[in-house]
Amino acid sequence: MIEVALRFSPSEILEMAKELERRGIDFYNRLAQLTSSSSAREVFSFLKEEEKKHLEFFTNLQKELNEGQEILFSTTDESVNYLGAIVESGILDKVLKGVNLTPAGIKMEDALEVGIEIEKESILFYQGLIPMVSPEKREWLDKVIEEEKKHFLRLQSMKRELKEKEG
Q: pLDDT value at position 3?
């Protein structure tokens, strides 16, 4: 078995989190444009606004880190390698590289599936941040994770409803 050493600084990890949120904003904006359903457009607009809040949270965390505040207290090789592996093993790698995951002509069901995968991996990524974040900041990170779980469930529900309408 080959062991791959993946090392990221706390600042790089927060930059990844910020980029995930920026891409999430773009993704939900694109889905809002793709759909012909006004109720789906409302949901995507809501999700886009949620991602904006998350971006602000991670931006503030990074600012505090850059000011030398103790926001991250544990960056063991194992936790850093875990985060790197999550990013490099799935859809988040494509997200961070700016791959267009909603090309022209994509079916809404397929776009929703992409969103579901992004939310799942984002949850894993943010859960991997938990041991690194100081207890004072953990409550907010827990809130981000809970919101991402709700996004995941909402997208799953939309996909199920879409299948029921088509089937």
A: 43
φ, ψ of residue 163 to 5 degrees: the values are: -65, -40
Residue 106 zone, left/alpha/beta (φ > 0; ψ -120 to 50; rest): beta
pTM: 0.81
Query: What is the helix, strand, coil percentage profile of the chain, to 5?
Result: 80, 0, 20
Chain position carrying tokens 């457009």 = 41
Give me the residues of the chain with pLDDT under 50, please. 1-6
Structure-token pair, residue 142 = 């827990």
For residues 73 and 138, what is the distance between their CA atoms, to the nearest angstrom? 11
Count of other CB atoms within 10 angstroms of residue 133: 20
